[in-house]
Design a protein that fits this description.
By secondary structure, the chain is α+β, with helices and mostly antiparallel strands. It contains four helices and 15 strands. A five-stranded antiparallel sheet has the order 8-7-9-14-15. Strands 1, 2, 4 and 5 form a four-stranded antiparallel sheet that branches. Strands 3-12-11 form a three-stranded antiparallel sheet, with no helix packed on it. A hairpin with a 7-residue loop joins strand 14 and strand 15. The structure holds magnesium ion (2 copies). One magnesium ion binds next to loops.
Length: about 260
Amino acid sequence: MLDGRSSQVILKSPAEIEQMRAAGRLVAETLQELAGMVRPGLRLSALNRHVVEKYGRLGVVPTFVGYHGFPHAICASVNEQIVHGFATDRILEDGDILSIDHGATVDGWVGDSAITVPVGTVSAEAQRLLDVTREALAVGIDTARVGVRKGDIGAAIQAVIESAGYGVVRQYVGHGIGRAMHEPPSMPNYGRPGNGMIMRKGMVVALEPMATIGSPETVELPDGWTVSTKDGKLSAHFEHTMALRDGEPADVLTAWT
Ligand code: MG
Ligand code: MG
């Protein structure tokens, strides 16, 4: 998802990044809880309900609800679904993989993160897809430093995914994040080293590689939101929100503790 109306990057001060940490921590904590709930027989709607009830108690805004009309607090995308799936009454089955994407707004700042988790016992092929996509995000995070170019980050993510024989989804990309969930710049999961804008201190971005076992071509389902692989093969998605700082690796605001 990307609005991209403006090309203006909004740099954050150290104090603002500290404020963003609260949203990041809450998103991480909530995703961890949701991952712990996932098992065969669970309805996707139960995951959504957990978030809605928790945030109701906390007085926190689940960022996705109402975002361009999106109806749920999480995106729940099963198997060949890549992103933006609905948290319906669908029942998870042993061997499924489930991508959970989640955002929260705390004191006006947004955190955004996603994981893909196995449901019960999954195939070796599915597990490898999860491992490779998680590794692609880790390499992207390690590459995202002040002074590198945007294309360096995309190329690093792309290399991990493609060297494993998987596809990199092109239509959906990472993004800047702050008081809005989607700010400039877009952060593609592909690119050419040495190309694109130079990453600066105070940039806060969400990197979110989406990898496919088969072709990375996508199709949108009739619900107007859910994005699936065109060939019906499995897809995985991992995402973290991070702040860039001088001389150090990125500060991952949605890191699990
Ligand atoms: Mg997300
Ligand atoms: Mg995102």
